[in-house]
Amino acid sequence: MDKAFLENLLAFDRQAESVQLRRRSYELLRVAPGSRVVDVGCGGGTAVAELAALGADAVGVDAAEEAVVFAREHHPDCRFEVGDAQRLPFADESLDGYRAEKLYHALDDPDKACAEARRVLAPGGRIVLAGQDWELFAIESDDPVLTRTIVTASAEGIGHGRVARRYRNMLLDTGFDDVSCEVRTAVLTDPALALFTVTRLATGAVQAGAVSEAQAEAWLDDQRLRADRDRLLVAIPLFLAAGRRPVTPS
Q1: pLDDT at 1
Q2: Which of 87, 177, 219, 236 has the greatest number of C-beta atoms within 10 Å?
Q3: Residue 14's pLDDT is what?
Q4: Residue 249's pLDDT band (boundaries 50, 70, 90)?
Q5: How many Å apart are CA 136 and CA 176, to the nearest integer?
Q6: SS3 108
Q7: Dihedral of CA 127/15/221/229: which sign?
Q8: Alpha-carbon torsion angle 165, 210, 203, 106, nearest 10
Q9: Using one digit for the tens of pLDDT, what is the confidence trace for 38-62?
Q10: SS3 40
């Protein structure tokens, strides 16, 4: 995870849809002054700073040390720790809120991470999972067949590229109650962010062997031309699931 990637994460964080998604996640967490909340996979630390501004006792955890260093540089008044989502550095039932955004697709075992979230949450504690389904990206293109091949291959090359559609069932299966699920859409037309996204998809499809480098480059050339003419569009469905650790044992 290099600095350029983290800077792109911050750019995504500033998008209107991203801001709205985070605000909704805080509502679902029912953040109150003094709430003990962790943001797992905190990246650049935007959510931790916003949670702290709401009065929460917030901490960010990320497995990448460079992300934690980056977050500390941008939010020196906030707390960040290096940690594994599947083995969190918190005692049983010690937190009131758990949040993870755009993380579970990158984990070895998302179900184990969800069980770990239940462990650290106190009875009545809230969890929110947010993330994209990599197979459902919609991209404007003159070659929809090749575009779908690239998107699907990229999703298959990601460890758990379709996990977001499982969030609701995952929470239920892990023993959470009061479970809800929403789907929102982020629309990227900004050339830098959209091209960053489609380039990542094309690279994944080449690595998966689904398309040749020449096919990927021709497809990207079309996307670059669209960017030059302000005709580039990438739509990303974002799943937002929430639940509660039961107050009484289930």
Answers
A1: 62
A2: 219
A3: 84
A4: low
A5: 26
A6: coil
A7: positive
A8: 30
A9: 999 999 999 999 999 999 999 999 9
A10: strand
Closest CA to 112 of 67, 163, 154: 163
Q: Which of 233, 193, 199, 192 is nearest to 217 (CA)?
A: 199
Rounded-to-integer distance, Cα 16 and Cα 27, Å:
17
Name beta bridge partners: 240.
130, 182
Residue 211 phi/psi, 5-degree rounding, is -140, 160
d(CA 125, CA 118): 9
Q: Which stretch of DSSP H or E encloses residue 58?
A: strand 57-62
Residues with Cβ within 8 Å of 183's Cβ and at least 6 positions away in sequence, in order, are 237, 238, 239, 240
Q: How far apart are CA 4 and CA 51, in angstroms?
A: 25
Q: How confident is the model at residue 241 (pLDDT cuts 50, 70, 90)?
A: very high
DSSP string, 18-31: HHHHHHHHHHHHT-
> Could you tell me the CA-to-CA distances from 216 to 18, 103, 199, 204, 226 in Å, in that order?
28, 26, 9, 10, 15
DSSP letter string, 185-235: EEEE--HHHHHHHHHHHHHHHHHTTSS-HHHHHHHHHHHHHHHHTT---EE
Q: Which of 79, 122, 98 is nearest to 171 (CA)?
A: 98
pTM of the model: 0.92
Residues 6+ apart with CB under 8 A from 49: 75, 78
